[in-house]
Specification:
Layout: E1 3-11, E2 14-19, E3 22-27, H1 30-46, E4 50-56, E5 63-67
Parallel strand pairs: 1-4
Antiparallel strand pairs: 1-2, 2-3, 4-5
Length: 77
């Protein structure tokens, strides 16, 4: 089963979403980037793949933020 980890990281003044090291999109806010990453992960998960969203903010190590099949979609918070 394919594993897709969508990463949300700070890039200058914006927040970027990437998959397998490939830049997908940039957003003005962290929340917008997380929402887009969750949408993308959900789409991949619906196709039978494992999908997660990993958040790497300025002050902490990367951590899993959302996992297809374990967290609600759409997110509640």
């Amino acid at each position: 089963m394919l594993q897709s980890d969508f990463h949300v990281v700070r890039k200058g003044l914006e927040w970027a979403v990437s998959l397998h090291g490939v830049f997908l999109a940039a957003f003005e806010t962290q929340r917008a980037a997380i929402n887009r990453a969750i949408d993308a992960a959900h789409q991949v998960g619906m196709k039978g793949h494992k999908a997660t969203v990993v958040l790497a903010d300025d002050h902490a190590s990367p951590r899993t933020h959302w996992v297809f099949g374990h967290h609600p979609y759409p997110p509640t918070a």
